[in-house]
Amino acid sequence: DPFGRLTSITNPAATITYTRDTYGRAISETTRLASGEETRHALDLSATGMLTGEHLTLPVAGTITTGYGRNAAGEITSSTITQHTTPAVTHDHHTDTSAPAGLDHAGRLLAELTYTTNTRG
């Protein structure tokens, strides 16, 4: 880019592309293999730049989302990990058409973790 930041890497096996926010922070990385398979890792940042969530999209597993809860000091106090799957194609038997299916927004809860601060005496 105009500021000399890395935007992509290409080799015979894959292309890796980076997306940046208005502050120049890398907020996503997409890897496309020569076979056409693609993975994507995206970050959600707060207005102050703190990580609030992550989304990992995999060819077979769909999207795994992690959301982070923080206390007033900005420390991570909880995380919730959810898997969202996307069927490859849906078929409408009434119109005899097929189309890509939408994302399962409700998702399936994989883990819910709560953290405590280290209070050694």
From TrEMBL:
<protein>
    <recommendedName>
        <fullName>RHS repeat protein</fullName>
    </recommendedName>
</protein>
<dbReference type="InterPro" id="IPR006530">
    <property type="entry name" value="YD"/>
</dbReference>
